[in-house]
């Protein structure tokens, strides 16, 4: 692979066991550390740096009563989350307002999520023991309605985003190392097609987001990088991140990518070698 001169810069050392599901709102980023039961909130210092000030922003770490596995913003600005078997809304202080429970399989829990332009919520379900074919996708029209199963037979459904027109749900299956595309019809999903199998790329695909140009940016767990894929799944570029486990990504503006990383399952020596593990990174992409 050709070398890439774009640099990932550490902006916030959150020390996350697993930094998951960043969501950008206004001038700040929210993400979750479900293993440590923390909600993380980074108030951006980017504007201050543009004016010449030396600021990396400010981190708030909010203790949570239960694990919040993922986050997404609703159209009205509400921060939504996924608990073990239901959706919830989260206040800026971390207060949880839980919705009705879904009927999920024994040994399973919710994982990564996304929202649509109508306020609908989509989430993956995975087996806690990471058993194959036990994964599924659930959908709820709103926070006040119980999520219903709309797809089955996955491994570990992870990063998910809807296309700009809302007609396709893109889902990473980490266990199967695939990026899938499901046709959307209201709250139902059709048969998926494989967009990418990540052949030849280091690590396992984890969190994912869509760029304004429709390309995919995917966090590679165990691969120390994020990769960009074309709309048809073709590999475009890799950007190295100085941490082994890259867990998720989100955009904070058209050319600014935020990257979460994790400390989980790293040896003491690996943590010494990669002190940025568990931190939030920023990548400033080249303008098209």
From TrEMBL:
This is SMP-30/Gluconolactonase/LRE-like region domain-containing protein. It comes from Steroidobacter agaridevorans. A divalent metal cation binds at residues 20, 158, 206. Gene3D superfamilies: TolB, C-terminal domain. Keywords: Metal-binding, Zinc. It holds the Pfam family SGL. Residues 18-262 form the SMP-30/Gluconolactonase/LRE-like region domain. GO terms for molecular function: calcium ion binding; gluconolactonase activity. Its cofactor is Zn(2+). Substrate binds at residues 109, 111. Belongs to the SMP-30/CGR1 family. The active site is at residue 206. Binds 1 divalent metal cation per subunit. GO terms for biological process: L-ascorbic acid biosynthetic process. The lineage of its organism: Bacteria, Pseudomonadati, Pseudomonadota, Gammaproteobacteria, Steroidobacterales.
